[in-house]
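seq:
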Amino acid sequence: MTRSTRTEMMNRLDFFIGTWAIEVVHPHIQPTPITGEASFEWLDERYVIQRTKIDKPEFPSSMIIYDWDDAKGQYVQHYFDSRGVTRLYEMSFEEGIWKLWRNEPDFSPLDFHQRFSGIVNEAENLIESCWEQSADGVQWEHDFKLILKKQ
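struct:
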């Protein structure tokens, strides 16, 4: 992957930059929606950094770093949270569809598989998404819904 291609792929994430209101609709936590905020910024015009704070103690604060993996030809999301959890997600972003998945152990054991799918609206100021989890990577269950609205 050439430098210009890496730059081009990272620039596709530029619409994230700014502050987003978060709504979490979780089937096991009430009242819903749970609110919060995420801020996205560039780090040296090379990486996108996301900092998230949810207004409920059961949800961890997190810092996420988005990068492009030349070897795999896809994005990577490095996740760190206030519980001490560190995870590495594979990521794609194509034609307004944002996907994340974790199918292998990384910095932590793979106690369960995870995947995320989000639809970015045409104005790129609303993302409607959901997280799913699976014990075996075959049977998937809804975990929670996540809505991001750019402020």
